[in-house]
């Protein structure tokens, strides 16, 4: 019995640790640190609704405490009933009108921003059009007007609207870039449209925000925001075929024999798996591993150990073949 009593003493410590750990994480994965106009508008709505809720709680508790003190029974008081206010027209009007006013204060900007943020900018000449397709457990990004497609790393120009068309290839997912705005569901057979914008050049974290399978928590991607000049250079590089060095030719053949049926390695290629054009320049491997040779080898040898439930098969390759394949992938810049 005493042992259980001692364990109860640790509950406040665990609670404190949980509160501290909720503040940990990547700097760009918090919706409370907006880096774009859409995220700032959404944060304003969060602050507005939270402010109204706090105001209501404070007023209700203030009245509650006042009544407890003002009408408490003192020593020597007789059992008397205070004056009843039931049926008071003044009070009835106050607690009917005030909630209506608070709802209007919340509803008007909410509806206004909801309409604004759901605008379709697909045909806007100044916007960059990106088609997003969610897969278990990776992201495909297609730039139809630019004639390129890629995966896992979404590259965008800073200061310009990015008009998204999002859908899913398998199950329900949700597209979310906390620092820039979100979230938007990706549905099979349906297309949702919305837009985002980054203030400046930086790298942001993106995630799937809908439980979609065993590796839902590992369905991450990176958003690389560049200056417009750097973005245009990136587009041209994506359209330029990679130069394969002589010592990577063996790995290229291994890739063609084992991987090309699923993975494209050209500007517009779309396949069953992620397009690997520009793979060597990406931020991460499989969206979650640091981009180095050891991570690539780990992914090729046993994809299920990295992302359980993903659809990449385990290819029976010897270590020397994997080394050659990694050398080839490192040349896809």
TrEMBL record:
Cross-referenced SUPFAM superfamilies: Cupredoxins, Cytochrome c oxidase subunit II-like, transmembrane region
Domain Cytochrome oxidase subunit II copper A binding: 125-237
Membrane topology summary: Multi-pass membrane protein
Record PROSITE patterns: COX2, COX2_CUA, COX2_TM, CYTC, PROKAR_LIPOPROTEIN
Protein name: Cytochrome c oxidase subunit 2
Reaction(s) this enzyme catalyzes, per UniProt: 4 Fe(II)-[cytochrome c] + O2 + 8 H(+)(in) = 4 Fe(III)-[cytochrome c] + 2 H2O + 4 H(+)(out)
EC number: 7.1.1.9
The record's free-text note on cofactor binding: Binds a copper A center.
Keyword field: Copper, Electron transport, Heme, Iron, Membrane, Metal-binding, Respiratory chain, Translocase, Transmembrane, Transmembrane helix, Transport
Family per similarity comment: Belongs to the cytochrome c oxidase subunit 2 family.
Cofactor list: Cu cation
Pfam families the UniProt entry points to: COX2, COX2_TM, Cytochrom_C
InterPro entries referenced in this protein's UniProt entry, alphabetically: CcO_II (IPR045187), CcO_II-like_C (IPR002429), Copper_CuA (IPR001505), Cupredoxin (IPR008972), CuRO_CcO_Caa3_II (IPR034236), Cyt_c-like_dom (IPR009056), Cyt_c_oxidase_su2 (IPR014222), Cyt_c_oxidase_su2_TM_dom (IPR011759)
UniProt main location, coarse: membrane
Entry function: Subunits I and II form the functional core of the enzyme complex. Electrons originating in cytochrome c are transferred via heme a and Cu(A) to the binuclear center formed by heme a3 and Cu(B).
Domain Cytochrome c: residue ranges: 246-333
Transmembrane spans: 49-69, 90-115
Location of the Cytochrome oxidase subunit II transmembrane region profile domain: 23-121
Subcellular location, record wording: Cell membrane; Membrane
Top class in the EC scheme: translocase
